[in-house]
Amino acid sequence: MGSDADLEMIKRRMLLEIQRKMLEKEVKRAEPDYYALFMEHLTEDGKLMFEKAIKQYGETARKVGEKLGRLYYLGRLRGGMDAETVYWVFSEIGLPIRLETKIVYKKGGEVKSISDVLKEEE
Asked: So which domain of life are we looking at (predicted)?
């Protein structure tokens, strides 16, 4: 008699363990991927600006993307996010995105960088 009760107890424990694992999987599935949600709301130029932020700030930029995705999920943000908005957000939180700038000189259909023009004048 005792061995049947022990066997029944082992079966119940195994069943409870399987149920617990299934519940854990459901909880993991229920939480959305906030980063992917954020990326869906970026415009093309917004994606390019965010890529520059990723190159400069790495994991910190990814965390910012996750937090913004969470705000989209909660409905506190709406609409697309363009490059200017991405730049502004990072600037506001103290992580300005450095952009490569070029000054060019156009004359007679010819385009030269300002450094080339200054070298020619010397």
From this structure: Archaea
Has this prediction a pTM greater than 0.85?
A: no
> In whole angstroms, what is the distance from residue 51 CA to residue 42 CA?
11
The total number of residues written for the chain in this structure: 122
Pure H helices in the chain: 2-30, 34-40, 44-57, 59-74, 83-92, 114-121
Task: Pull the structure tokens for residue 63.
Answer: 């965390």
In whole numbers, what is the pLDDT of the chain averaged over residues? Answer: 89
What number of CA atoms fall less than 13 Å from residue 54's CA on the CB side? 11
The pair of three-digit structure tokens given for residue 34, joined into one six-digit string: 């906030």
- Are 95 and 61 in contact by the 8 Å Cβ rule? The answer is yes
**Low-confidence winner among 2-6, 26-30, 54-58, 61-65 (lowest mean pLDDT):** 26-30
